[in-house]
Every structure is written in structure tokens, then in C-alpha cells.
Amino acid sequence: EVQLVESGGGLVQPGRSLRLSCAASGFTFDDYAMHWVRQAPGKGLEWVSGISWNSGRIGYVDSVKGRFIISRDNAKNSLYLQMNSLRAEDTALYYCAKGGYNWNDAFFGWGQGSLVTVSS
Amino acid sequence: EIVLTQSPGTLSLSPGERATLSCRASQSVTSSYLAWYQQKPGQAPRLLIYGASSRATGIPDRFSGSGSGTDFTLTISRLEPEDFAVYYCQQYGTSLTFGGGTKVEIK
């Protein structure tokens, strides 16, 4: 069974940094692309960033380019999101999601999310 | 960026009725790379349909997806009480984007 457990969220001031982690189990982590998706309070889903199985392909939504960095450690079955220069509009529940073998694939598993609140 | 527009915003139906949800793309979706997700309050989204029409593992056959190009549909043939939720479409052919969601509520 796919298990994804996010951690690292919390309350942070505008302009500061935060690093999210996602611990994966129940599948062969280094076979799959992985993604971060966020959901602002009461709003819809927004894809934030994704990384291919070997980190060879990485993508970001325009609003976080230059501020967020996605990475993975296949030896530790872990996905990360380094969030810098945080803004109030980054406040959201951040989900870790399991992609497919290919970059162009749906999200077959989701974690329960880690809440990030950006406020002074 | 491909923009996905879902309609209606809210669908009010009774258990046992048929639900038809629409997802329209601003440009053609590559290779029908279109998925549907269900999200209940306080829960993470769950994949229902991928490749426009393939059901994900464990999804009941009352859920079906259809469409191609720019117009896609999710149909729930007979609504069960547990189906009342918010549904999102997603395209993953050109970058990745989600629609704004359709809420299916009990009438």
C-alpha cells in the first residue's frame, strides 16, 4: 500500500524559508516521478512542482519559480521541497503525490498534507 | 498553460441519480492525458480516472470518464451517499494543471 507522510510545515514569517519532507513507503520509490500539490484554505488544487525518478526532469508552477526547489533522495525514499522567500499567498496545505513511471502521468497516491502558514 | 474549466460549479442531486460533470480545456489535451480526482472534506484527493477513461484501482464501475481533445466528462451512473464530494479534473500532457472543481451536493 502506498504511504506518503509529509512533515516540516508550520507558521513562518513572510520572506523566511521552510523545508517540507515526504517519506514514502509501500512502493519502489526510485521508479516513480513525485510531485508537490498545494491547496489554499477553501480553494482548489494547484500543482506546485514535480521531479522525475532520476531527478533528470524538474518542473515548477510559474508562481514559485526561483523561490522553491524540489529534490529527492532515492536512498532514503524521500522527497523534499525547499521553500524560500515565502509569501502570504503560499499559505496552503501541501500534499506529496506519487506520479507514474513517466513525467506525463496522473497522481496515483497522495499523502495527508502538511500545512504551511505564512504570516507575520 | 492549459486552463481547465469545470462545470457546473455545484451539482445538487439525490442519491440514485446520475451525475454528469464537465471539464473543458483551453487547448487540446495531449494524448487524452486527463485525470479525475475525488476529494472529501478533510481528506486528500483520490484518483478516480486517468487517461480520460481508465478507472484507477479499486474504483467502482459506476464512475466512468469519456472525451478527447478539449472536452471531457466524468459520469457517476447512480450516486451513492459516499459520492457526495468535490471532483477535480487534471491534465498532465502539457505541464500539469487542475480545474477549479465541481461540488456534488445532496439535494
Key terms:
heterodimer, A: 120 residues, mainly beta, seven-stranded mixed sheet, four-stranded antiparallel sheet, 0% helix, 48% strand, B: 107 residues
Shape call of chain B = globular
What is Rg of chain A? 13 Å
Q: Please trace the helix and strand order of chain A, writing H or E for each element.
A: EEEEEEEEEEE
- Largest sheet properties of chain B: 7 strands, mixed
Largest interface (CB within 8 Å) is between: A-B, 20 and 25 residues
Strand percent estimate of chain B: over 45%
Protein topology:
The complex is a heterodimer of chains A (120) and B (107).
Chain A: E1 3-7, E2 10-12, E3 18-25, E4 34-39, E5 45-51, E6 58-60, E7 68-73, E8 78-83, E9 92-98, E10 109-110, E11 114-118
Parallel strand pairs in A: 2-11
Antiparallel strand pairs in A: 1-3, 3-8, 4-5, 4-9, 5-6, 7-8, 9-10, 9-11
Chain B: E1 4-7, E2 10-13, E3 19-25, E4 34-39, E5 46-50, E6 54-55, E7 63-68, E8 71-76, E9 86-91, E10 97-98, E11 102-106
Parallel strand pairs in B: 2-11
Antiparallel strand pairs in B: 1-3, 3-8, 4-5, 4-9, 5-6, 7-8, 9-10, 9-11
